[in-house]
Amino acid sequence: ICEKLTETIQNINVFFSQTFQEIFEGGDAKVVMTDPANPLETGIDIEVRLPGKNISTRTLFSGGEKALVTAALLFAIFLQNPTPLCVLDEMDAPLDEVNIMKFFNMIKKFSENIQFIVVTHNKKSMEFADVMYGVTMEEKGVSKVMSVEFKGA
Amino acid sequence: ICEKLTETIQNINVFFSQTFQEIFEGGDAKVVMTDPANPLETGIDIEVRLPGKNISTRTLFSGGEKALVTAALLFAIFLQNPTPLCVLDEMDAPLDEVNIMKFFNMIKKFSENIQFIVVTHNKKSMEFADVMYGVTMEEKGVSKVMSVEFKGA
Amino acid sequence: MKLKKIILKGFKSFPKKTVIDCRQGINIIIGPNGSGKSNIVDAIRWTMGEKKVKSLRGSEMLDFIFKGTEKIPASGYAEVEMIFDNSSRTLRMDVDDVSIKRIFDRDSEGKFYINDKRSRAKDIMALFGETGFSSNGYAIIEQGQVEKFISYSALERRAIFEEAA
Amino acid sequence: MKLKKIILKGFKSFPKKTVIDCRQGINIIIGPNGSGKSNIVDAIRWTMGEKKVKSLRGSEMLDFIFKGTEKIPASGYAEVEMIFDNSSRTLRMDVDDVSIKRIFDRDSEGKFYINDKRSRAKDIMALFGETGFSSNGYAIIEQGQVEKFISYSALERRAIFEEAA
Ligand SMILES: Nc1ncnc2c1ncn2[C@@H]1O[C@H](COP(=O)(O)OP(=O)(O)OP(=O)(O)O)[C@@H](O)[C@H]1O
Ligand SMILES: Nc1ncnc2c1ncn2[C@@H]1O[C@H](COP(=O)(O)OP(=O)(O)OP(=O)(O)O)[C@@H](O)[C@H]1O
Ligand SMILES: [Mg+2]
Ligand SMILES: [Mg+2]
C-alpha cells in the first residue's frame, strides 16, 4: 500500500502540473502527504500557486478558481488512471466564458477514451455535445426525457 | 418583541405567497414559528409546496428551486421592509434562462426603490444593467475596475 | 466499457418507464430548473450501490420512489437499470452486455441484480472496482460539489487517491 | 439613501486606489474568474463592520491587506470607504453625504470612521440599523450562498426576521 500510494502521488503530480498549467497558463499545483513519515495513515493535501499571485491560502481563491483547481486535479487523475465513465452536474456554473471553453476543450480531448454525461444550463457548453437530451416536466411533477436535435458537430 | 415578531411573520407571509406564486406560477410558501407557544425563543421554518408536486421535503428540491425559494423570500422581505441597498453575488448561477428573466424582471421592479449591486457571468442577466462595471487583472494579481459601455436600456 | 442505456421507472420524478440511450463522447443533459436532471445523476449513483440516503438528497429510502402528483398516483417501487457494453471486457465478466439493476419497493430492502442475477451492493462495487467509477468516487461530481477535492478533508482525499492507484 | 462610491486601497487584490461610482438602479459587475468581483463584496461587508475573518474568506486580518505580486510589493494597510447620498435622511445624521471608512494596518487593530470621525463597528451598525442593510443581513447574498435562507437553522432565520421587523 505505501509504495503504491507514494508512486501514485508522484505520477499524479506530473500530470497535475501539466493540467493545471494548461488551465491557468502558469503557476503550479501538486498533491502532498500531510504526514510523509507515516504513509499508512497520512492524509493528502493540495498545494497551489496561482500565476502571478502571491497567495497560498486556498480560502482566498475565487469560486471559479476553486472549481478550476478541482477540474485540473480530476483531469490529472484521468491521465493517471482513465475511467470509462464520468458524470458532471453543472460543474460549469461558476466559470466565465473563457474558462468554460478551456474546460470543455479538455473534456473533448478526454472524450475519446472517457464517456461523459454532463448536465448544464450554459449555451456555450452545449456546443460541445455529441448528443443532447432535454428533460422536461410537460406534465407537472413528471419528468420526461427527449433527444434534442441540434446543429451538432 | 413577541407581538412584533408575530406581526412581521404575518405580514411577510402575505408577501411571500405573492412573490412565490409570481416565480413558481402556482404552489405556495409560508414562514412558520417552530415553537409558537414560546415566541421569545422560537425559531423560524419555511414551508413550501411546489406547484403540481407532492413533495414537502426540502432536501428533494433541485438546486434551482432552492435558489428561487430564497429569492421569493428575499423579495417578500423587501415588500415588508424595503432596504435601500442589496448586493447579490452570482445568485443567478443555478438558474435556467427562463428563471433568470423572471428573477431579473422582479429585481428591475424593486430597483425603483432599492439600489442593486449584482455580480454575474450570465449574458442574459447583463441585459438588465442600468450601469455595468468590468473587473479585470490586466496585470496579474492586480484588480482594475472599468466602466463598461454597453448597448444599455 | 460504455454506458448504453439508463432505464428509470418509479425513481424520484420518473413514474413512467424512461429510457435514455447514451452515446460515446459527450452526452449533454439540459432542461428547466426542477425538471429532473440531477435525479438522473442520483439514479446512476443509487444503482452503483450508494447506501447513504442523505447523499442522494433524501431522508429515507421512500424518498426515492415516485411520490405521485395530482393526476398520477405514487409508484409502488423504484427501479433503475444501467446497461453497459462490455465488449472491451473492462468489467471482469465474460459477456458483451452487462446490466446492473436496483429495485426498491415499500415492503422490502433494496435488491441489486447483475445480469438479472440477484446480487449485493458489494458485488457491484467489486465489479466496477478497477474502473475508478463508483457512487462516491472521483468520476462523479454532483451539483454544488464543484469544489469537491478542495473542500474534502485530507483523509477523504486520501481515499480518492487510493481509488486512483 | 444611495451608495455613491466605493473606494478601495490596499484591500485584497486592489493595491492601487480604485473608485467605483455606483448609480441608482441595477449596477452589474462582470469579469473573469479570480479578477476581484467578490473581493468588492467582501470590501462592502468589511466596511459595514464584519468582524468574523472567516466569513470574508480569510484566516487572519492580514489576509485583507494586498499581499503583493512579482512586480508590486505588499501594501502596508487596507482601506475601504463607502460614500452614501443621505439627502433622504434615511441614515439618522443630518448631513447630505455620509462616508463610512475602515482602515487596517499591520500594527494595529482596525479603525472605523464615520465622516472622518473615529468610530466603532457598533456605531456603524447602529447608523444602518433600521435600513436592514448589514454585513450579515438578508440584503447581501454572497457567492455560493444562493440557498441562504433554506440552509440556515431555524434560529438563524429568526435573527433575519427580527432584523426585518
Ligand atoms: N420521490 C419523488 N417523487 C416525485 N418527485 C420527486 C421525488 N424526488 C424528487 N422529486 C422532484 O424532483 C425535482 C428535482 O429534480 P432535480 O433535482 O433533478 O432537478 P434539476 O433538473 O436538476 O433542476 P436544477 O436545474 O434546478 O438543478 C423536485 O422538484 C422534486 O419535487
Ligand atoms: N490579500 C490579498 N492580496 C492579493 N490578492 C488577494 C488577496 N486576497 C485575495 N486575493 C486574490 O483575489 C482573487 C479572488 O478574487 P475574487 O474572489 O474576488 O474573484 P471573482 O472575481 O469573484 O472570481 P469568480 O468569478 O471566480 O468568483 C484570488 O485569486 C486571490 O488570489
Ligand atoms: Mg440539478
Ligand atoms: Mg466571485
Overview of this structure, please?
The complex is a heterotetramer, with two copies of chain A (153 residues) and two copies of chain C (165 residues). By secondary structure, chain A is an alpha+beta fold. In chain A, 39% of the residues lie in helices and 25% in strands. Chain A has helices at residues 2-24, 63-80, 97-110, 123-126, and strands at residues 28-33, 44-49, 85-89, 115-119, 131-139, 142-148. In chain A, the strands form three sheets. Chain A has a two-stranded antiparallel sheet with strand order 1-2. Chain A has a two-stranded parallel sheet with strand order 3-4. In chain A, strands 5-6 form a two-stranded antiparallel sheet. In chain A, helix 1 (2-24) packs across helix 2 (63-80) and helix 2 runs parallel beside helix 3. The model of chain A has no long low-confidence stretch (mean pLDDT 93). Chain C is of the alpha+beta class. Chain C is 21% helix and 27% strand. A six-stranded antiparallel beta sheet of chain C has the order 2-1-4-5-6-7. In chain C, a hairpin with a 5-residue loop joins strand 5 (97-105) and strand 6. The model of chain C has no long low-confidence stretch (mean pLDDT 95). Chains in contact: A-B, A-C, A-D, B-C, B-D. Chains A and C meet through helix 1, strand 2, helix 2, strand 3 and strand 4 of A and strand 2, strand 3, helix 1, strand 8 and helix 3 of C. One adenosine-5'-triphosphate sits between chains C (12-13, 31, 33-39, 63, 65-67, 143) and B (50, 53, 55, 60-65, 94).
